[in-house]
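Hi R.,

Quick one: here's the 1-aminocyclopropane-1-carboxylate synthase-like protein 1 sequence you asked about.
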Amino acid sequence: MFALPQKNFRAPTTCLGPTCTQDMDRSHGDDLEGECSRKLDQKLPGVGDPVMLSSDTSYLSSRGRMIKWFWDLAEEGYRTYHMDEYDEDKNPSGIINLGTSENKLCFDLLSRRLSQSDMQWVEPSLLQYPDWRGHLFLREEVAKFLTFYCKSPVPLRPENVVVLNGGASLFSALATVLCEVGEAFLIPTPYYGAITQHVCLYGNVRLAYVYLDSEVTGLDTRPFQLTVEKLETALREAYSEGVRVKGLILINPQNPLGDVYSTEELQEYLVFAKRHKLHVIVDEVYMLSVFEESVGYHSVLSLERLPDPQRTHVMWATSKDFGMSGLRFATLYTENKDVATAVASLCRYHGLSGLVQYQMAQLLRDRDWINQVYLPENHARLKAAHTYVSEELRALGIPFLSRGAGFFIWVDLRKYLPKGTFEEEMLLWRRFLDNKVLLSFGKAFECKEPGWFRFVFSDQAHRLRLGMQRVRQVLTGKSQVAEDPHPSQTQKPSDQCSSAELLKLCFSPGPPSPIKQN
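And here's the predicted structure, written out as tokens:
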């Protein structure tokens, strides 16, 4: 659980410094108007001392000061990166960003498709106010798209679709319409930290943490495994603190773990939620970014029967699977008409332009391009980049978790923390940043074990190679700012040859090479 910033400022013990990417922030939130009147020493599970807001910003309301506090805290690391961003020609000693979860591998494919003539269309209806749920032509294409790629046993219906300008807006809207002020969602940790802001800044909704750990307790268990027993424990603890839990948030595939839930696990979680009358928000934003064929992904919409369809709400967006995080397109699928209508009402503030809606409909209906061009090439490039970073980590003797989905590897750097503290984790993160590589540290995901970091690998070969070189320098005690050398002036280390060659072959634009098919 987290406590909200109070009115007199002092730093929280759980906030050890700036978070390191745009998609990472610290978790302190609560109802500003009512809950902030609680006694200052109150502590909730998983939180250090309460945080109190400065009154220096006299132009802002208490809400505004809290919102600004989130921004200042969460964006500091990201601003540092932008002030010294790596550029191959203009700033070769700048910061390499391996912290933000974006797919930067397929711009060539996307730019060609989005530049084709069928994307360029203007008609009066696209320049006028739309149905706030989204134009019907787009909702129809979204329903067909999700039916096909989620492997729904029955056709999904466009009246159950709402489109918004991004997953952040959708989280915010759902939190606002599902929860009263001060109520909470259960969420397994480690988790994508920005959800804290998404549910708090408008809705004043809290998160109740379901803490997972790396311990393997049996043959059928895995590190950071979510179980119904852990969900029950977290729910009881929240109730014991007087916090009303209204729902459960699941991310599948999971960020930052890359976990993919089995159909049996999904059913167990949904049955748990139904037993306690909890809403379930299932974020499937990485569903088409499962690049290992051996990993069987199952959307919640593929289940033959949902235990509680009126309380099950599914999210998807193009930001990850199609590498369009700047385009801002997300969709909600829910059979609950009241929820759909309430979220649609908020689309007055979070809607999409008609021109973008037209382009998205054209993209989603182009099944031939998606299946024959984009997805095979995207998966091959993701797999090649993942292979490279995995081999680099193995060469350094570093354990990691990665399950063939998403853009990241969950890396265990605990052996570099002599005392095993979050203070040491932050110091190590700063050493990486000082050596011009930006990573994401575990505390920003509310990981309860110090020393875990998220490495994002979905980047171009030369940046990935240079970033891992800088990581190696920090971990081997040879920190220095490494510039990107000209290829003719460098010799690849012997333990990097195969992965570097794989990068070179797989990331080059054009048809997939034979190596990428392996």
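The chain is about 35% helix and 10% strand.

Cheers,
M.
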